Amino acid sequence: MEIVICPDVNGVGRTAADSFERTIQRKPAAVLGLATGSSPLPLYNELERRSRHGQLSFREVRAFSLDEYIGLPAEHPETYREVVNREFTTRVDIDPAGVRGPNGNAPDLEIEAADFERAITDAGGIDVQVLGVGSNGHIGFNEPGSSLGSRTRVKTLLPKTRRDNARFFGDPNDVPHHVITQGIGTIMEARRIVLMATGEQKADAIARLVEGPISAMCPGSVLQLHSNTVVILDESAASKLALADYYRYTYENKPAWQRL
Ligand code: GLP
Question: Is residue 215 a contact partner of residue 174, using CB atoms and an 8 Å limit?
Fold first, then answer.
């Protein structure tokens, strides 16, 4: 696990975008894994900028999102399908038909989960997956206690996660109780993982994820077992890391041949 500490949020976005750009340069038909929430927004802003400047093209790229609320009306602005559309798909030159998430309104959610897994496999697997982290250490919507080998399935949100996400909804009671999410085992199959976190409210979760024991109580801690993960942080999110100075030193002295 590589840890990169950036001076500010824009630096986090640029560093994450570098990783995406390199993947797409090597493989123009790359398969991206998208996340929602505030954390990836600096990445999407930077990808839009690079796309507009002709530095990067998503024409051959396909993408899968991580998760979805169950039971929100299809036209609701906070369905993750709508959020991904608004924050990413409509801002770059990707073919919208190549972007898919789990459908939270499918008549049979078990079948939907299996179909979604199969679609990722048929696309050849995810080349680079962006992740945020919940304040309790969840990735995707895999709440504490989730099996570290889990596949796409239905989960129940903790009250704290519903409260955290209430800021996106007018009425906190409108936050759904249930979601369909890629499992931790699914996420772990991505060839590269770029986790982004900013702000002091993420400092505890990041300390547990990066330096704590691997445990289902902090689902993101399983990333310690992933061989190609970078964790990109601002100073506040990194503020509780015991080895922060070492991570800074390592990154500052990184030889040019050893790229991010
Ligand atoms: C939700 C999403 C996660 C995201 C988390 C943190 O629970 N399902 O994918 O990482 O929120 O969101 P934020 O980045 O807004 O703090």
Answer: no
Q: Any idea which fold 2-252 has?
A: Rossmann fold (3.40.50)
Q: Which atom of ligand 1 is the closest one to the Cα of 141?
A: 8
Segments making up each domain of the chain, as ranges: 2-252
pLDDT in tens, 109-141: 999 999 999 999 999 999 999 999 999 999 999
Residue 236's DSSP bridge partners are none
Residue having the nearest C-alpha atom to atom 5 of ligand 1:
134
Ligand 1 centroid to Cα of residue 26, in Å, is 29
Is the pTM above the cut of 0.85? yes
Ligand 1 site-directed mutation target among 39, 72, 186, most atoms within 8 Å of CB: 39
Percent of the chain with pLDDT over 70: 99
Closest ligand 1 atom, CA of 197? 14
Ligand 1 closest atom vs CA 161: 7
What dihedral do alpha carbons 7, 204, 186, 232 form, nearest 10°? 10
Angstrom distances, CA of residue 62 to CA of 14, 121, 183, 186? 21, 13, 20, 17
Query: pLDDT tens-digit profile of 170-186?
Result: 888 999 999 999 999 99
